[in-house]
Amino acid sequence: MAAIPHPPSPFRGYAAPSLSRWEREKPPKAAKGEGRRVAFCCLAFLTLAVPAESQPVVDQRQRLVAAKRDAVIATRRAEALARDAAAERNAADKARAEEAALAARVRAAEANLAAARARQAIVTRLLADQQTTLATQQAPVARLLAALTALARRPAVVAIAQPGSIDDLVHVRAVLGGALPLVQQRTDGVRRQIARTRGLERDAAVAAAALRRGRAQLETDRVALATLEAAHRRRASALGRHAMSEEDRALALGERARDLVESLGDDAVAQATAADLAALPGPLPRPLAPGTRVPVPAAGAYRLPVRGRLVTGTGEISDAGVRSRGLTFVVAAGAPVVAPAGGVVRYAKAYRGYGTIVILDHGDGWTSLVTGLAAAGVRPGERIAAGAPLGRAAGGEEPRITVELRRRGRPVDIAALLG
């Protein structure tokens, strides 16, 4: 260790009284012991080193940095998901986006809680290290102050009267004069350490408060997430039950509509038969002999009412479990629809689930049913020829036109009659 330079002594020019050899060789008593003790305290205080930061604090700082990074990432993801949820128009997708955003908020709260715990651990560790450092630095200061106090209490006359006291005083004064700036620097350092300790105590209180807030926020977000998930499950269950009931209702209504359409066809056939019978001048003709074929329209007398892509044939089973009684075509929006054969319009109205339907009576028990029109261009009772316009197809995406042919109420395959 480098020697401490001695500053100019304030006792320069003072003539010390001459001492005998016995007095010079005589060991000093209390004054010399006090001086050595003061000098030793000064040297011990000046050589005190501040301990470096411990390894656990470094590890905790690294964990704090990682926790803060995770918190920032989770918060940004939560904000992005919240924006997506706000911009989502579909109810189901919006619910899933809201649930994902809330889950991200929970993860962000967990990351913030981990950061708060790491911050509190760091502050606690630093506070303990600071208290240890402060105690270590205060010990030599306390010993130095005690030695100086003891030296100051001795009367000056006693110091002069004792052999060797003047030399000791000069030496101690020189040591104190050189050490005074460093003593002031170290005492300033001790005061700064005390201020830092108080600051760490305040930081510890702030970290504890942040930890409490993080726990409360995490609990709030978890409760909100559980509530939202329960609400979504209840809504999904209710929608599922409602969808099943609506599907059953749709099937029932479809069958009922089929029955009504068939009954309309039967009524039209009955009316046509009654009109034909009423127009006969004589008695009813005899039944046809066994083996006689039922008259059918000539080949080419029947045509398709619309041009389009065939999607369902006669006798096919639909997704709803209903057997098709005719042909269904996908056509262009607003495509013209014509009469497949000549006859009398018996029905031309909109029917729920089928759009506008038209029933044509071709005579001799033959009827045609055309569904899916946007509006009818004919009126009941009107006689039209084959190819006459009935209306136009509906708009929208892939409108469908269905045509059914019946003989006295029973479906007939149209493919055999097409020219």
From TrEMBL:
Residues 21-30 have a biased composition (Basic and acidic residues). The keyword Coiled coil applies. It comes from Sphingomonas aquatilis. Keywords: Coiled coil. This is Septal ring factor EnvC (AmiA/AmiB activator). Pfam families: Peptidase_M23. Residues 324-413 form the M23ase beta-sheet core domain. Gene3D superfamilies: Glucose Permease (Domain IIA). Residues 1-30 are annotated as: Disordered. The keyword Membrane does not apply. Residues 78-119 form a coiled coil.
